[in-house]
């Protein structure tokens, strides 16, 4: 099933970071972009958030199965919806309290649509948590550099220090960045 059917290390790190309680999620509106298996969004829902996990049409069935298999753990709510980056986000308004992203920065072609979607979805109070594994092979470093360069035109970034990550689920090459709209 491709990249969307894998629980990437960055998803585990972000899910476990949420579990530390660093971000109050109870009764908050949360949207996960590029959810894949939905692991991060489902974790947020177990912590009381009202979550919409989003990905392409071909991953909806997997998301539904994973939601169903974990519904006994959910204390908030969780639903799956199709969201293609760069397209209309009207149905996802008003802006959520949190947007979660794990390992969404790897295709050069998707950078601009992803950034457009982030701009369209965020309000002044939306907190975006972007977790990614720093990769050193091929075009990855260049794509990452470009992403953060473009992102900083409209957003402020703050790296969450490693010692704030979950004690067991952390790695020197996996970063969590807290992102807010520039005022």
TrEMBL record:
GO terms for molecular function: methyltransferase activity. It comes from the Eukaryota. Keywords: Methyltransferase, S-adenosyl-L-methionine, Transferase. It holds the Pfam family Methyltransf_16. GO terms for cellular component: cytosol; protein-containing complex. InterPro entries: Methyltransf_16, SAM-dependent_MTases_sf. GO terms for biological process: methylation. Transmembrane segments: none annotated. This is MT21D methyltransferase. It comes from Anseranas semipalmata (Magpie goose).
